[in-house]
Amino acid sequence: MVKLTRIYTRGGDKGQTSLGDGARIAKDDLRIQAGGAVDETNSVIGIARLSINGDIDAMLGRIQDDLFDLGADLCVPEEGRKGKAGHEPLRITEKQVKRLEDEIDAMNANLADLTSFILPGGKPAAAYLHLGRTVARRAECLMVGLNAREAINVHALTYINRLSDHLFVASRHINDDGATDVLWRPGTNR
């Protein structure tokens, strides 16, 4: 378990931060930007959960825990390094990806067929999940860029890709299984 006794350390005042293995890197490094976008995704999901209950809320709670796992995964480079305390780094697993896929399939089974692209909207929680989806896509783009520079956990990349799909399907589920989705009307305002 994590124990924090101080919130500020002054260690980042000059634009650098520490990774989980103790290495110091610039705060604008792709690794830090990706972790920040993952954290932002988590925050948006937290807002969406304010007006959600039941199975979807439980799914989103598991996802929020997973996103902290993903942040921890990104915090320690894949290059075989161990964390500061000599522990094996926490990594996203194939099992976590599979759980997302199973949840997507279960929610998708009852959704109305898509007849157009969907605009973010409908119920407030659905709109927030669409926002979370777009932030997750940004996190994925940053992670892909990082992976081009140095290898990261393949399951982490798959997880963030699947997460945006999950949030899309969950938003449709919240919008009365798609009945209250806001549909794009191409060329309507020409």
Which topology does CATH recognise?
Hypothetical Protein Ta1238, Chain: A
Q: Please state the overall shape, judged from the principal axes of the Cα atoms.
A: elongated
CATH class: Mainly Alpha
Strand order of the largest sheet: 1-2
Structural class: mainly alpha
Percent helix: 40-55%
Main sheet characteristics: 2 strands, antiparallel
Written as H for each helix and E for each strand, in order along the chain, the element string is: EEHHHEHHE
Estimate what percentage of residues fall within beta strands: 5-15%
Low-confidence stretches: none
Query: What's the pLDDT, averaged over the residues?
Result: 92
Q: What is the straight-line distance between the termini?
A: 57 Å
Radius of gyration: 18 Å
User: Any idea what the CATH architecture is?
Assistant: Up-down Bundle
Output the number of helix runs: 5
Q: Structurally, how many domains make up the residues?
A: 1
CATH H-level superfamily: Cobalamin adenosyltransferase-like
Q: What is the β-strand count?
A: 4
What does this structure look like?
A hairpin with a 5-residue loop joins β1 (16-18) and β2. α1 (30-48) packs antiparallel against α2. The radius of gyration is 18 Å and the shape is elongated. It has one domain (26-77, 88-180): Up-down Bundle (Hypothetical Protein Ta1238, Chain: A), CATH 1.20.1200.10. The protein is mainly α. The model has no long low-confidence stretch (mean pLDDT 92). It has a two-stranded antiparallel sheet with strand order 1-2. Strands 3-4 form a two-stranded antiparallel ribbon. It contains five helices and four strands. The longest helix is centred in the last third of the chain and has 26 residues, at 124-149. Helices cover 54% and strands 5% of the residues.
